[in-house]
Amino acid sequence: MEEVDNIILHSLRSIGCEIDEDVVSLKEFNTEAIVACSVRCIKTIHGDVDLPNTLPSAMSAKFRMGTSLANHLQELGYRGDVGYQTFLYSSEADIRKIFMFLVDKLPKEVVETTEEILGSSVLLQRNIANTLSRQLSSPWVPSSLKHKGIAWRGKPPTWQREGTCCSFHFHSCNVSAPEGSGDLSKKIPKALKSYYQTNLPFITCQTQDYNDIVPSVLEKNAADVTAQMEWENEWNQSGLASRLSQQEYRDRKRQRILKRITDQLRQDRQRSEATSGSGSSQDLQQMLASMGGRGTGSAKTKGSRFTHSEKLLFAKDDDKAISEVTTVLPAGQTEEEKQKEREEEVNGLKDELTSLTSRLDDLDLEVKKFTASIQQMEEQISNQNRSNSEKEDGYKVKKRTLDLLPDAENNIAKLQSVVDSSAQRLINLASQWEKHRAPLINQFRDLKELSSKTESEAQLKLEEIKEFRKKMKQVQDDARGKEELAKQLHSEYERMTKDVNRSAYTKRIMEIVTNIKKQKMEIDKVLVDTRAVQKEINQLSGKLDRQFTVTDELIFRDAKKDESVKKAYRYLASLHESCELLINTVEETGVILREIRELEDQIESEGHKKVLANLEKISKDYQQIKKENDTLIKKIKGKS
Amino acid sequence: MAAPVDDLVLLKKVDAKLCGNLLHGLVDGICHRGRLSYDQYSEKISLQEWWSLSDAYTNLFKDAVKNSWTKDMIMKEADCLDDEYKSTVVDVISSRSPDIRSQLLNDSHAISLAHMTDFDWKLKLVMSSDKISSVKESVLAVNMTVQSNDGRKNVTVELNKEQLDNLITSLEAANKALVQFKS
Asked: Which fold has domain B114-182?
């Protein structure tokens, strides 16, 4: 019962009933407390109930209040016996039942809060609206009274930030911190170390503005993180497959990019040289430059791409410049003439421009043609060269044979011998080659096999490494997620511990359940026992019956012959009768005993209900009512 | 372009222990981290000398990093100084060369018609307007500082969600092109 009382007391306190700290059970509740608590409960359940919070002093009002409370309870669905007497002349068990019912009916606060969390955007908007309305309603305060826009006001007063005078741009600049100090196994160069120790200013002194420190540090951190992530990504995607160490991979990549950039630059430069090299365009450019009064080449000759784009830009501008210059020249003529002249000039220039462009196109075409013919020519020249060298070779052979012709016989023989010997040598060499070849081929095959094996092994290992990396990442993600979950759960748990000690309750419930199980087992045992006893009783009574009939028959047969046996038979009958009577009496005593026990229980429970005290109370209340009635009658009489 | 010897010798006017500070300060000036102030050294060096001294050493550092000189070459370049000063110069160059190098690279690749040097953003929630009582649209104000040949310029735009998505996709395309060039 203590647990139940604890729960009830806790919930009553949580809805704001005023209960002293040293009250530990419902037994200590007096009538006032009971009424106040139940009114509070009903008000939290329904909200719009018209009941006074405390018990009125007048007796009739007390009764009315008790009845209305009972009515409310029945409206809520309370099935037990309830009336004004339950509240005014309380018994502990009834009160406990009522409070259990009321606490069960109390609205669940948890559900409400979760519903609010679901609409976070709604919450945010409500928050914004609240803040805005509060700021609109609050009077203006000069900024000198608020340090950095922070003020202490509102209802209830809170710290709040007003205005934007204290916000500033997120402006970051480069900061540097000692690197490599985490890994002690790597030595930092001495010069660098001395720089770190003596000359490197603190990070707080590296920014020009005090406000830049935090943004700079954040920026640097973010940049480092993204660089690391990018590198990780790239290494996972393409770096591992290349089978190089990280350093080598970086070096190779740097070289590749450098080469690409230099190629690009060289190409652009060649192109720009080609364009500026062709005479006509240069003339045009010079002319335009002198007219527009701009030095195109002066600004930047560094990046050829930029000069290129600049040229393009300026070429357009210079067209405008030409028209400007030409319009300025003629003076002292009428407007119409000027207009006409201008138009003519414009037309002439346009014609010139079109002719120039067409000529330029033609020239381009010609240049293309020429380059094509140059290529053709070059091909022809190489062909001719090739045929030339072939012919020279043929000429040499023929000359040798011609030299040998005069002494034909001898020479033929000589040649034959030479041919024979060379053939012999060839055969020799071939056999030797064969001899060397076989082991070499074998070795080659072995090596090839080995290399393919290592290759496949390397591939396998590579795959494994990739898998491991993937797994690593997965595990990392998992761990992070779990950590977050743990954090969340932890915070939730922390929030929950404010409530009733949950684990104690669960433990208690578990204990109760085990207790009930034990009791059930014992009840079963007792049941089995009683059944066994009953069986035995049945058996014994059956046995007795049979014995009696047998004896009865035996004696009855003999009774006809003998007088004394007749007497014995009579005794037997009376014995049987009195025994039966005895048994009946024993059973009756058992029943009576049970009744007595029940009555004792009843007496005890009635004793718990504070009957005497309640009776006294009732008689007192009765006296009071009588008094009140008397005064009322007196009043009425006085009035009439 | 070797620094004139006369200017390099001026370093001797500063105490040997303090010259490390001075040289590091000059390097910081190269890296745009705030110039060294003359006040600290005004007792020992005249303003004219100060200018030539700082120019000489700035050029020396830039040359040394640009051409990746070895220690001996730096020693030769600063031959007019005493050993103590020389070793300080070498130390400064060897410890700061990555910084100077990256700064030089940054400076040279900042040569273009216009480029963004800084940006800032603010997320705003429009609660209502003069016509509509409840708008509840979020907008992003992006403030970009653009450095061009004509000087610095601020570009401020306000984007709603759709426009921001467009901007981000175009920027992502640019980044993709860059990545492709790198690989």
From this structure: Nuclear Transport Factor 2; Chain: A, (3.10.450)
